[in-house]
Amino acid sequence: MNKFVKYSILFILLVLVQVLLLNNVKIFGIGAFLYVYFILVFPTSVPNKLFMPICFLLGLSVDMFLNTYGVHAAACTATAFFRPFIIKRTVQFEGIDSLDELTFKSLKRNYVVYSLILILLHHFLLFTLQAFSLNLIWLVLLETIFSTIFTFVLLMVVQMLKSK
Amino acid sequence: MRKKFTYFFFHLFFVTHKMENFIRFLVKSSTFLEFLLLEALALFFVVSSDGFQKNVLISSCNSVVASVYDAQAYVEDYFSLREQNAILAEENASLYTTVQKELIQDLLNTQLESDFDCISAKVIYNSLHKFQNYIVINKGSADGVAPEMGVINNQGVVGVIKSVSEHYSVVLPILNNELRLSCRLKKGDYFGSLIWKECSSQIANLEEIPHHVLVAKGDSVVTSGFSEIFPSDILVGVVEEASLKENAANVDISVRLACDFQAVKWVKVIAYEHREELEQIISTIEKDE
Asked: Does A153 touch chain B if contact means CB atoms closer than 8 Å?
């Protein structure tokens, strides 16, 4: 399948899943943001200059549905910007090159570190922007940690389903 | 001291050197500028969302977003069908029973129409737990209500009119020991009179039933129709308990009343058409005696 079509479908699918399904699923008031999967799985061969606007649009479309006005867009863009550095630190450190799509199947332990760092970064930015105040820093940190765990579990489920 | 300073400067140099490298890398790639631009745009959205001038384009007022939510609601409606069905069925059942009740009442009315007339009235006062209980209804002599008229509701006998004013009447309910109601055991056609002795709003006593009569729990007690107060065969209650004491002439029968006095809201006053005529005849009999 054409990569453009494939990732377009993934884009729409993840936004819809996030908005229609996960938005209604809250465990102890904590939600998951699985659409980050798009940022994690996007081909590394695509230059960041193109990758960032795509992630900006991804965040903005989630913003549109959740009425959060650019909070997701900001978090997504930042996550996209920092992704190459994180990949350098976690994945390519092991000398694995020329991997276009990063999956758990190919990276195993490194994928856990890579995805956890990215999700944590994204969620931290998201909650910080939403709170917009330093008084709530502990609340933001707590929410970030628990939400990251929730998203990570869902991500692993997706990875398991995909590898089957 | 010197060592420390050297170390400090070395460290500073090292870090700034790295930082410089880092910044140079960022600027050179110009990705950083793009990042800043996008972040600025996103933050502009965040900041400008405060206040009333919310951006319609990036909120769920957007038509694409709205249509997606519409579709979601459309699908969710199907999931709640079972629940909605149950609610409708319940409503249907309750409506059905009300209609049926009204139909039965209509039948009752047509049956009574021959010589009885019904005046429907609303209960505006009701006592339950006194020794002498009374009910007040909102129809009086102006509406054709007169003392000694029977009062029923859709469940059964309520009582008898005691006194009337122009627009209100006092009803002596079964729950008042002033009232003796002539009753009949439907099974076996034995007559007795119903008196309320207990302080329960549901139980009254049926007296004057001879001891040889076999009374079973659940037998229905109806009006005798011997007076101008009630037509015959209107339900009063069902036998709750029957006991025979040694050497007693009569059976002690307690009757569970059909009318739920706690919930009585609407009643019908039974006006006998030839009431005065009948009264006159009865009074002549009494004179003869």
From this structure: no
Q: What is the DSSP letter of B156?
A: S
CA A75, CA A72: separation in Å to the nearest integer?
5
Distance CA B278, CA B284 (A): 10
How far is residue B160's CA from residue B127's CA, in Å, rounded to a whole number?
15
Strand partners, B235: B222
The structure's pTM equals 0.49
Q: What share of chain A is helix, strand, coil (3-state, %, to 5)?
A: 75, 0, 20
Distance between CA B24 and CA B29 in Å, rounded?
Answer: 8
Q: Which of residues 40-69 of B touch A (CB under 8 A)?
A: 41-46, 48-49, 54-55, 58-60, 62, 64-65, 68-69
Q: What is the predicted ipTM?
A: 0.80
Is A67 in Cβ contact with B59 (below 8 Å)? yes
Domains and CATH numbers, chain B: 117-275 (2.40.10.340)
Encode pLDDT of B231-286 as tens digits.
878 888 999 888 887 777 788 888 999 888 887 877 888 887 777 777 777 778 76
Do residues A52 and B34 lie in contact, with contact meaning Cβ atoms separated by under 8 Å? yes
